[in-house]
């Protein structure tokens, strides 16, 4: 085992296990076949592991980000919902998104002319394009332009440029912490055109209701309309995951735009049903 594998994996009865420390009383373990890639970048520990039940996994600092078995659920849900709300998306910005799964989904929209992706860690993109084509699809579309820098600084220098901004961040620790701050959302609003909209992953309604609500409230304070929707992603703790949209101008979702022949999770029913929230979640958002 390499240095990183030793840090995050344990060997028991001849079996390799990757254990994700979720919280004080919860750990989730995956049985691993082998490690495909491991490198310590200036930002984080990066591993691609092949697991028995979830196929290939991108693991950052010991936390599973996406897998070849269930990654399409998250990537489709954070991409197609905003793209079907904006009436004419031409220029899209992705912040984070190093596994390239979101960029790959956005490329399915022929009306999109330019896709910019600002990812702090070039090694995540290299590893995903090289070893995780199930998610990245190798991504050779000429409309995609990569910037390797901190999304927080990148966005400060942009005004009225984008139709849609997708914040595909890791959890709010390390370099991703600032991607959940109010000032960052304000800069996102400035970077959007007058009818632009944003979406972010807003964490687990089960295990991180406070973070989810904080993101929702911050976005509601800045954008005239905020909307929260959910999907079930088996490898994310708690299963149920939330996403929050902030729009400058209310626009009705048009399911006809969605390239459903190419999607595996999103279809017309999901597009309209995902905004129906379970009772506990609705109450949590309404609670003062
Ligand atoms: N789908 C995943 C999830 O919810 O767990 C996250 C996808 S993606 C791998 C998250 C990416 O955000 C990582 O590659 C990380 O390097 C990048 N990232 C974290 N902080 C960032 C920042 N401040 N600016 C740009 N990218 C950032």
From TrEMBL:
- The superkingdom listed in its UniProt entry is Bacteria
Q: Which residues bind spermidine?
A: 99, 168-171
Which source organism? Robertmurraya siralis
Q: What InterPro entries does the entry give?
A: PABS, PABS_CS, SAM-dependent_MTases_sf, Spermi_synthase, Spermidine_synt_N, Spermidine_synt_N_sf
Upper taxonomic classification of the species? Bacteria, Bacillati, Bacillota, Bacilli, Bacillales
Give the family, as the similarity comment puts it. Belongs to the spermidine/spermine synthase family.
GO biological process per UniProt: spermidine biosynthetic process
List the molecular function annotations (GO) for this entry.
spermidine synthase activity
| Name used for this protein in its record | Polyamine aminopropyltransferase
Domain PABS per the UniProt entry, residue ranges: 15-248
| Catalytic activity annotation | S-adenosyl 3-(methylsulfanyl)propylamine + putrescine = S-methyl-5'-thioadenosine + spermidine + H(+)
- Give the positions the UniProt entry annotates as the active site: 168 (proton acceptor)
Q: Which GO terms describe its cellular component?
A: cytosol
Per UniProt, S-methyl-5'-thioadenosine binds at 44, 119, 150-151, 175
Keywords on this record? Polyamine biosynthesis, Spermidine biosynthesis, Transferase
């Amino acid at each position: 085992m390499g240095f990183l594998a030793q840090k995050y994996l344990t060997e028991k009865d001849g079996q390799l296990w990757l254990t994700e420390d979720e919280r004080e009383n919860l750990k989730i373990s995956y049985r691993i076949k082998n490690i495909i890639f491991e490198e310590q970048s200036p930002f984080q520990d990066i591993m691609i592991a092949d697991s028995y039940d979830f196929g290939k996994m991108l693991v950052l600092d010991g936390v599973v980000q996406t897998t070849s078995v269930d990654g399409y659920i998250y990537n489709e849900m954070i991409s197609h919902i905003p793209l079907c709300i904006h009436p004419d998306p031409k220029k899209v910005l992705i912040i984070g998104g190093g596994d390239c799964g979101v960029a790959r989904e956005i490329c399915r929209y022929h009306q999109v002319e330019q896709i910019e992706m600002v990812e702090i860690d070039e090694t995540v993109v290299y590893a995903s394009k090289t070893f995780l084509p199930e998610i990245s699809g190798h991504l050779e579309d000429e409309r995609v332009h990569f910037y390797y820098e901190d999304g927080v600084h990148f966005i400060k220098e942009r005004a009225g440029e984008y139709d849609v901004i997708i914040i595909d961040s890791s959890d709010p620790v390390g370099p991703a912490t600032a991607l959940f701050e109010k000032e960052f959302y304000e800069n996102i609003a400035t970077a959007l055109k007058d009818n632009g909209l944003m979406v972010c992953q807003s964490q687990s309604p089960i295990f991180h209701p406070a973070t989810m609500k904080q993101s929702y409230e911050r976005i509601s304070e800045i954008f005239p309309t905020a909307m929260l929707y959910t999907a079930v992603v088996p490898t994310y703790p708690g299963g149920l995951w939330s996403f929050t949209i902030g729009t400058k101008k209310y626009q009705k979702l048009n399911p006809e735009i969605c390239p459903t022949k190419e999607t595996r999770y999103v279809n017309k029913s999901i597009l309209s049903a995902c905004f129906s929230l379970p009772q506990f979640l609705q109450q949590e958002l309404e609670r003062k």
